């Protein structure tokens, strides 16, 4: 079996070296890039399972790289930044990152986040690649196939990240049921929810934009203020 390949893209070589030590000890094969252009080239050339991407890099920043990657790939992206403000976090997630950590961080926490993202991707890829109606959910003209990890609206493919797919599948699996942000986070990220965590809100917003652009503005995901989110059948 080929080792899992992870790209660390960070112009701070000391931080990149620290991350590499922890990930290498877990058996991951590590590639490194110290600017955005080299990172994007490696992402497009190599067979990677995950990208750790710093926001502030020369030549191309992490947000630009993330946008370019998301144009044609759903590879998991963990964004790093020295900025702790909510707006920076929101911008990182809105460009398509799956998770976000603020420097300085605990390397063991980063390792746990990496493993969580890889577990979700591994589960998806391990499923038999064949059609099975039992694994297909349909809400109006929206079809979600868990086996092939695809989403279509009137047979037109909708390109979602793995995180967006997991949120959509969760909501669609229980039409009419309201899921709190805490419940969504703990089920999708498989991690403890922290108060004032905007991660779910940002991913829901991005998911809505993608769905509504294909549904002619129809709002499939409803907000129940003070409670959470739901999809009506």
From TrEMBL:
SUPFAM superfamilies hit by this protein: C-terminal effector domain of the bipartite response regulators, CheY-like
UniProt domain Response regulatory: residue ranges: 5-118
Matching Pfam families: Response_reg (PF00072), Trans_reg_C (PF00486)
Keywords: DNA-binding, Phosphoprotein, Transcription, Transcription regulation, Two-component regulatory system
Residues recorded with modification 4-aspartylphosphate: 54
Record-linked Gene3D superfamilies: 3.40.50.2300, 6.10.250.690, Winged helix-like DNA-binding domain superfamily/Winged helix DNA-binding domain (1.10.10.10)
Ranges annotated as DNA-binding: 134-233
InterPro entries the UniProt entry points to: CheY-like_superfamily (IPR011006), OmpR/PhoB-type_DNA-bd (IPR001867), Sig_transdc_resp-reg_C-effctor (IPR016032), Sig_transdc_resp-reg_receiver (IPR001789), WalR-like (IPR039420), WH-like_DNA-bd_sf (IPR036388)
One of the record's GO cellular component terms: protein-DNA complex
Locations listed in the record: Cytoplasm
PANTHER family: REGULATOR OF RPOS, STAGE 0 SPORULATION PROTEIN A HOMOLOG
The protein's name in its UniProt record: DNA-binding response regulator
Organism listed in the record: Paenibacillus psychroresistens
Lineage: Bacteria, Bacillati, Bacillota, Bacilli, Bacillales
């Amino acid at each position: 079996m080929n080792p899992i390949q992870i790209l660390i893209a960070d112009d701070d070589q000391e931080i990149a070296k620290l991350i590499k030590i922890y990930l290498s000890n877990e058996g991951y094969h590590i590639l490194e890039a110290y600017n955005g252009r080299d990172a994007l080239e490696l992402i497009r050339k190599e067979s990677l399972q995950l990208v750790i991407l710093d926001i502030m890099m020369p030549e191309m920043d992490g947000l630009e790289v993330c946008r370019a990657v998301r144009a044609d790939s759903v590879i998991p992206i963990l964004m790093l930044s020295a900025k702790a403000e909510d707006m920076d976090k929101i911008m990182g997630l809105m460009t398509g990152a799956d998770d976000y950590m603020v420097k300085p961080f605990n390397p063991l926490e980063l390792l746990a986040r990496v493993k969580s993202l890889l577990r979700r991707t591994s589960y998806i890829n391990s499923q038999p690649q064949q059609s099975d109606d039992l694994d297909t959910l349909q809400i109006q003209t929206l079809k979600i196939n868990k086996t092939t990890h695809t989403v279509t609206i009137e047979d037109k493919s909708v390109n979602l990240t793995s995180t967006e797919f997991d949120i959509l599948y969760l909501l669609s699996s229980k039409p009419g049921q309201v899921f709190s942000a805490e419940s969504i986070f703990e089920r999708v990220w498989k991690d403890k929810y922290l108060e004032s965590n905007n991660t779910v809100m940002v991913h829901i917003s991005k998911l809505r934009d993608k769905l509504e652009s294909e549904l002619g503005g129809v709002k499939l995901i409803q907000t129940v203020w003070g409670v959470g989110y739901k999809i009506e059948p």
